[in-house]
Design a protein that fits this description.
The protein is α/β, with parallel strands linked by helices. The chain contains 11 helices and 17 strands. The two termini are 12 Å apart.
């Protein structure tokens, strides 16, 4: 089968590796679609994703596909099911490390529920918390929408981690796929005021279309005076970029006991908080890795929104590439104009 490999930083190729074989609790998934994770995948390609040092590696972690074969202890997956969240954590070719491997032609999921039922959901038996999010999606959820659940479930779970609630006033830095997902979900969840900051005018327009009340360029003088113009500070600022400058800009905008909510991955070992710019008391939440049980639980409300036509994958896809042109997809992602880039198989 084919897979996408980062041979060395900034060098990406399609490679041939053996097909995966399912273990007792595993199912083999034939990939239908996958998506670039603009920040994470590009950082892996560039060679500076925190904690990832071994190359060559197999890339990708956002995909959906159809169950092909199953192991003899699998209970939750049946051939023909559409499943989201498949990966290749142990590459079938020993010369490659794993950058999650989800862009491979065939990938694996593990049956979390069956492992729990059999009392083997532990590290000794190869269990990992991420298997909770490898789930069947309803038949009426298309492959393209199912693939976007990889992003959407994590963002939805972030609302719980950040303790955001209906009626809050929030400002979101970044109008990439994560940022506009925060905007869209904030509106659907009943936030009171939703602002969004992004340097690109088309992305600011997209944030407005998704439900933002106001949008700003980073250097907009209205942004620095937002608390004064609104006559009250914000409940929370969400950093959907992962940038120390964003964090410190947000500190000056929140109320006493307000929150700075860092969702974007910070690729530096340390950050400096200019706490004197903010209120005496405030919260700092760092969401650098998904909370898996909340991410899994997000699937049902998201599917409800999809079925109610309140959430449409077409609003998020800005480009499509065949998987064979992964280099073109990455180049387009680097242009700064993309939201979600669909990779077709």
């Amino acid at each position: 089968m084919f897979s996408v490999a980062v041979i060395e930083p900034d060098r990406v190729e399609l490679v041939e590796i053996p097909d995966p074989q399912p273990g007792p609790y595993e199912a083999v998934i034939k990939t239908e679609v996958s998506y670039l994770c603009n920040r994470t995948d590009r950082k892996l390609v560039a060679g500076h994703f925190p904690g990832i040092e071994n190359y060559p590696l197999l890339l990708g972690h956002e995909s959906a596909g159809i169950v092909d074969t199953i192991g003899n202890k699998v209970q939750s997956f049946k051939p023909g099911n559409r499943v989201v969240g498949g990966l290749l954590l142990e590459p079938t070719e020993s010369g490659y490390a794993s950058g999650w491997g989800g862009f491979s032609e065939y990938i694996l999921v593990k049956d979390h529920q069956a492992m729990v039922a059999d009392g083997v959901a532990d590290a000794e038996h190869g269990w990992d918390e991420l298997y909770q999010i490898q789930r069947v999606v309803p038949d009426n959820i298309s492959a393209r929408a199912a693939g976007l659940l990889c992003t959407w479930r994590e963002v939805y779970a972030g609302f719980s981690d950040f303790q955001l609630k209906a009626g809050d006033d929030v400002l979101i830095f970044g109008a990439g796929p994560v940022g506009v997902s925060f905007v869209k979900f904030a509106r659907l969840l009943g936030m009171n005021y939703i602002g969004c900051v992004d340097p690109h005018a088309p992305k600011r327009a997209k944030a407005l279309a998704m439900g933002a009340d106001e949008v700003f360029a980073p250097q907009d003088p209205q942004l620095n005076n937002l608390a004064q113009s609104r006559a009250k500070p914000l409940d929370a600022v969400v950093d959907a970029v992962g940038n120390q400058a964003v964090i410190n800009a947000g500190v000056a905008l929140i109320k006493t006991a307000g929150s700075i909510c860092v969702y974007g991955v910070i690729d530096q070992p340390a950050i400096t908080i200019e706490k004197h710019r903010g209120p005496f008391n405030f919260n700092l939440y760092i969401h650098q890795w998904p909370t898996r049980d909340r991410e899994a639980a997000a699937q049902e409300p998201l599917c409800d929104w999809i079925n109610a036509k309140q959430l449409d994958y077409r609003d998020f896809i800005t480009a499509e590439f065949p998987i064979t042109d992964i280099a073109g997809a990455l180049e387009h992602a680097a242009s700064g104009a993309a939201l979600k880039i669909l990779l077709e198989y």
